[in-house]
Write a sequence for this structure.
């Protein structure tokens, strides 16, 4: 059973471009979470999705950021018109249920660098 | 709002010795879960240990154990017989039963000296 797959592992964008980060959850998992990690900091929650639904986006910046988890295919975190402050590691995690005690399975992250 | 605090940015331990990493949290809820995750240089987040708040017994996983003090809102991780492969960033995390997000501390970087 393959783990949570994220790609690309590294992504370089110039200011003003769009960044698209992909996440395929573990097989059988229908709950996806996105986190952002700045250097030397912990992970900060961004958004929680189930198939075709955004359940909680309280950690997502109001502008330029969007996320989706379509019926078919990976979850996508999209950042429009990137700025240098968007440079960070973005982690995706999945779980089979939405139970609060459920552990999250993490991908290896996408390191976004904005030039 | 729930917050997780790790007051030790860096810790160092001699191989085969024991080290304890500290974590405190703030919450008004009574039903929640606590986790320790390890992040090696590969960046992969690996679950080390999990504790259910309603269980008084401290969780253990081989060389890893926790000291869970619910009243003090403290959740420290003890690593016994430290190995070189234990070197990593360690993150304490909190998740309530009613909330979707898992909240993380800022992390403790553990160095293991041979």
């Amino acid at each position: 059973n393959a783990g949570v797959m994220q790609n690309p592992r590294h992504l370089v964008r110039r200011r003003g471009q769009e960044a698209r980060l992909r996440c395929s959850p573990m097989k059988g998992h229908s709950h996806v979470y996105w986190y952002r990690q700045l250097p030397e900091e912990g992970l900060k929650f961004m958004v929680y999705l189930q198939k075709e639904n955004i359940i909680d986006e309280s950690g997502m910046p109001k502008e330029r950021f969007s996320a989706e988890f379509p019926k078919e295919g990976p979850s996508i975190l999209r950042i429009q018109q990137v700025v240098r402050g968007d440079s960070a590691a973005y982690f995706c995690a999945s779980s089979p249920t939405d139970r609060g005690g459920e552990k999250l399975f993490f991908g290896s992250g996408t390191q976004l660098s904005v030039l | 709002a729930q917050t997780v605090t790790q007051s030790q940015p860096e810790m160092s331990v001699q191989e085969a010795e024991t080290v304890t990493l500290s974590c405190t949290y703030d919450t008004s809820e009574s039903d929640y879960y606590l986790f320790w995750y390890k992040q090696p240089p590969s960046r992969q987040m690996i679950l080390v240990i999990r504790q259910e708040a309603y269980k008084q017994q401290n969780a253990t996983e081989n060389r890893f154990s926790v000291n869970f003090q619910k009243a003090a809102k403290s959740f420290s991780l003890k690593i016994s017989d430290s190995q070189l492969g234990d070197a990593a960033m360690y993150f304490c995390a909190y998740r309530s039963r009613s909330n979707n997000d898992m909240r993380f501390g800022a992390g403790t970087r553990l160095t293991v000296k041979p």
Notes: The mean pLDDT of chain A is 92. Chain A has no helices and eleven strands. The longest strand of chain A covers residues 43-50.
